[in-house]
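#struct-pred

JT: dropping the chains for the assembly here, can someone run the whole complex?
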Amino acid sequence: MSGIAKKMDTKLPERFKPVIDYQSCRTCKRCVNECSFQALDFRDNRVVPIGGCVACGRCLAVCPVSCIEIRTVPSQFPPHGNWTERMRRAIYAQANSGGVLLSSCGTDVEHPVIFDDLLLDAAQVTNPSIDPLREPVETVTLLGGRPGRLQVSEGEMLRMKGCGNPLVVMDMPLMIGHVSLGSVSYNTQKAFFMAAKELNIVAGSGEGGLHHDFYQYADHICAEVASGRFGVDPQYLKGMAAVEIKIGQGAKPGHGGHLPGEKVTPLISETRMIPVGTDALSPYPHHDIYSIEDLAQLISVLKESVEYSMPVGVKIAAVHNIAAIASGVVRAGADFITIDGFKGGTGSSMRVIRDHAGMPVEVAVAVVDKRLTEEGLRNRVTVCAGGGIRCSADMIKVLALGADVAMVSTAAMVAVGCRVCQQCHRGLCSWGIATQREDLVQRLDPEVGAARIVHLFNAWNEELREVLGAMGIDSVESLVGNRDRLRYQGPNPKIAEIMGVKHVGEGWG
Amino acid sequence: MSHANAAQPLPQPSQVYLAQRPPGLKYMMGGCGIAGCISLDGRLIAGDRIRAMLTIMEERENGLGAGYACYGLFPSRKDQYCLQFFFDDEKAKERAEGMMRFNLDILHDEKVYHHPVADLRPPYPIIWRYFANVLPKSLKSEGPKKGEEDVVIDLVMQINLEVDGAMCISSGKDMAVFKGNGFSYQMADFYDIPRYKGTMWISHSRFPTNSPAWWAGAHPLSILDWGVCHNGEITSYGVNRKLVEMSGYKCTVLTDTEVVAYIWDLLVRKHGLPIQAAAFAMAPWTYDEISRLDPESRKLATWLRFTYREAFLNGPFSILVGRSQPEVTLIALADRKKLRPMIVGQSPDGGIAYCASEECAIRLVEPDAETWATNAGSPMIAKVGKGILRTGTEHPFQGVRL
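RK: done, full complex below.
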């Protein structure tokens, strides 16, 4: 069989080719040493590409004389509008291996981007715009269960009756999404947590437990409880900012996590509490949740476990019936819900699911917000949303569509060096992000990474304040779900109708 | 025409709407003038005083709506609901009356006095007033327990939504709204406002930027005994509307002011918040300011903001809010940055309190009044017979003398 297998392999043309300017090259070989994909070699006194380049760009970054250029190899396939190169490559790959195709990062299929079809409003004449450099424009965001009404006692001074639910106070409506230790390196997670603390926001732990070094950041971490329950023990749950039950992930709705055994190093093993070298496969469903009432039980078990000291939320992937599911999740007692759109990232996912299952976060948030409002539940819960948020404009739009908090992971990874080459599942990340190979992990300095995320998020938050000011809104909560401040100018007004957004050209009245 | 800016009168809208909501209307906005006065010692205030206050601020209106609300107006019927309607025709009136009889015991009904005014173009709506009690049978519902007020609110919203050409303009006890499409002086003449005497008045003149000429869309907007006159544009309307719709209110007039009225009803009547707490939810301090409060106040402030996030009225506004239950009360509130004006005054004998967009409105009727400005987001609260409970310059959570 193996002999046949060898004969069966179809050699495919390269997609990228590093081209070296030999006039400038000093033959320092740094590029060869840094290329974790082994696409470069040093032969006959010169650097030569030997295939397998993924355009991660590491060689460009380390070349002291900038003599490398990565060229996209023009398609070597006879052109065909229907049988695209992508389709044919997938067929060859599966005919070679007989396996399920894996990929990583968010889907690279060119689905329509609804964010880009939405335009923001601004104030003119009848309401004054606000200059955030001169006047307060607030972005403080509170995360937690909301009581719906408050009881206040009168007397010399008004006082609140009761103590209120646990709350997380964040300085901006942004959180770093759940990226597990295992899918990314220790240094990457450290950079995320350091940034979250510095920014006074929350970062997700991911489903891989929490390394003991990271408990110092616990009050800025949202601890994830996923179907594999990796690393979940009493310490893991206490002292955190929040706890989140992960039902689904946008990049792979209906699937559990998959961490290949090669990435389960001693460090991952001790954090996840699984043997070294074993595949960490979290089950597709939680095996104790087969219906909504089971979810309600797990929520109350977690609330009891943490003695009601922190909000307990639920993350669900954006699927077609998301509005009804979200309503059920709120009724089951979730203090916050996180909606993960289908363009969200992943360290490893089946391509068929990543590219084809789920729905865009824009629509998901809008229909959830609408449904929760109709059912009188919207003021009982905080809504977080992510999966495809690329810039501050996307963040602003997702807030206006109904999310209290925008969840961002890929952008944070790009900030620390990721080039979105979609090779995370191979564990060879040349930037030290999606890898456990010690020599590669060392390439990422957590302090530098954290500083870059702090820069990025501060810049986005500043842009948010500028947009709020332009709209005449001086606090971000008045943007949340304020669809009146959006207009749609895309090709499909039906989407606008479903989202409850007016078409461009339609005024207030 | 006495309008200062109208050297060459601007064309007025060709179509005037009365009770019927203008087709396609989704939202109305505009700038405005507001004025109010309240008797602190219980004496009656005649309508010519509020007419003078409002009409002097003539730069604040453009003839597309004005109105007055009078409280303490019907001492002999003060325990009955007074429902006033605009009807486009008799058919709408009959349908609305049919719906009213299902829930209400109508004790008396009458035409609301008005007469043609030379420069106010017809058509005028049919303007009718009903005094009624809630029928005991309508308190029994299959759903959650209903109070009399809920029956009235549900009825009013049902008529407004379902009966073409009918719009309820006020529905509270011991109060009535007089409003329409025109300048403030025209409305005062049309209803002969000086003929009325009450313990409190609030009033409003409009400078709408985009809304049609619509009688029912003028201020004060009222639900139950709540009356709201509002100068401003609320940039958070989409959010505020969600809160009231979540709580069962139906938006029928489609202005931010309508939503403000419902929010007051929800927070104060239904949720039982003290007025200062409700005002704080609508015009909260910044988190930075809140961090400097004492721990207990900080907790209340944070939870008011978090719980009533959708009640936060963002953008510039100043509002006058009146209610008659349990006692006639005037609330004057400006937004948290004080982007719209609000000035408060008291007569030298201490018997009357005034609020207005401009000081001239107060000086005209009370030249020696003591005047002051309220703090941003801090409500002035006054009650008939009790005096000024809050000047609008206190700590946000300071209790009031009761």
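JT: nice. Chain A has two domains: 2-99, 141-148+164-503. The mean pLDDT of chain A is 94.
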